[in-house]
Amino acid sequence: DQQVKQNSPSLSVQEGRISILNCDYTNSMFDYFLWYKKYPAEGPTFLISISSIKDKNEDGRFTVFLNKSAKHLSLHIVPSQPGDSAVYFCAASDRNAGGTSYGKLTFGQGTILTVHP
Amino acid sequence: DTEVTQTPKHLVMGMTNKKSLKCEQHMGHRAMYWYKQKAKKPPELMFVYSYEKLSINESVPSRFSPECPNSSLLNLHLHALQPEDSALYLCASSQGGGAYEQYFGPGTRLTVT
Asked: What pLDDT is recorded for position A104?
């Protein structure tokens, strides 16, 4: 059962335009969401996160939107740059699970973003 | 400093070998993680250490044995692995105490022959 889904395996965008990566989840207990970027042969790099009490979080060119009722989040990258070309993973956490002070992350399958010059 | 380091970068081992993967972080994080990632798949959680104690074992076979010697170090001891265990092994750490962002190391590319 895939609790976090990224339905688009790939996305191609022109440099300078907006990239929109989407993610859906099924577990209503998830209350914290993160986006990671991964280059080949490297570990994932944390980009941005959002708590379920918010519907938007912005950091420079990256903005994450959360629609709790639809169980959907998206990552907007504006403007897109060729260096943004990578695999993007959406991840979710139930912070109350087990009463722990850390988050067990459930990852989506990833979306390959290609930004063309 | 958000750096997690892992050694070695690459490892080739036979099915009868014993080897160890090492991970280190100096961010004062209190939770550390081992993940396994196969090609074109998301990272899969293997183990979580919180305050140097094993908190989660995601039903990982006993041929993988984690160890947390101190709050900065995490090891993964490997013994009698199978070729299907070949993967990228990622270490991560997080601050804990309500901060849930995990920071990943570059990984160890393991090949079992």
From this structure: 79
